Amino acid sequence: MQRFKDKVVLVTGAASGIGAATAKRFASEGAKVALVDVSDLSATASSIGQDAVLTITADVSDRSQVDRMVEETVARFRGLDVLVNNAGVYSGGDPAKISDDDWHKVIATDLDGVFFGCRAAIPHLEKTKGCIVNTASVSGTGGDWNTLPYNAAKGGVVNFTRSLAMDLGKRGIRVNSVCPSLTRTPMTEETFKDPEALEEFNARIPLGRPCEPEEVAAVIAFLASEDASFMTGANIPVDGGVSASNGQPPQ
């Protein structure tokens, strides 16, 4: 299926995990893809294996670099149809011991970066009647223990998505987000190395297992497609049923 034939898609955090899987999914459906990350993008680019790929090194917490990534994408591909704000970092711990630097890094990357990306992309998306998909998290729809900066940033992304959708609807731009639970990415690799921690997560997930990046990518692609043409302002759980629970233990 070529739902995105000749469409231009920009994906941040595309070096690994959900971002890499998302870039591959769009490319497999015919898109021209701009890959953005602070890390080496060669593995993702080579796995896509097509000429219609642009790699850009950029830190989304830096407004000027975000402006540049959008400008380079539009200059190369002559437009922009889909922006996927996926880049993110994690920090947590005892709230009384979280440093200023850790707090600001998470907020700057996970929340400011989404704002910077959207603001830079809006004029171009308005021309194409394009759309935005943000990577939020179940950590943005409910609290976690010892995860204050990440919860705050992702909670901001969730309500940012709603608010921006309201502002941009009449301009023809749809805005949605995905809210994954535990997903197999470099950010979560320590959890996957700990059998006891992984067992505890699986016990809370009704489907009994963590998510794979490709499963999130499939929902991102759906939200960006014409199949979701009347969806905007939605924060879609991709969580194996975690958010269906009221928090009580199994009987």
From TrEMBL:
MF term (GO), any: oxidoreductase activity, acting on the CH-OH group of donors, NAD or NADP as acceptor
SUPFAM superfamilies tied to this protein: NAD(P)-binding Rossmann-fold domains (SSF51735)
Entries under InterPro entries matching the protein: NAD(P)-bd_dom_sf, Sc_DH/Rdtase_CS, SDR_fam
Entry's family note: Belongs to the short-chain dehydrogenases/reductases (SDR) family.
Protein name per UniProt: 3-oxoacyl-ACP reductase
Organism: Devosia soli
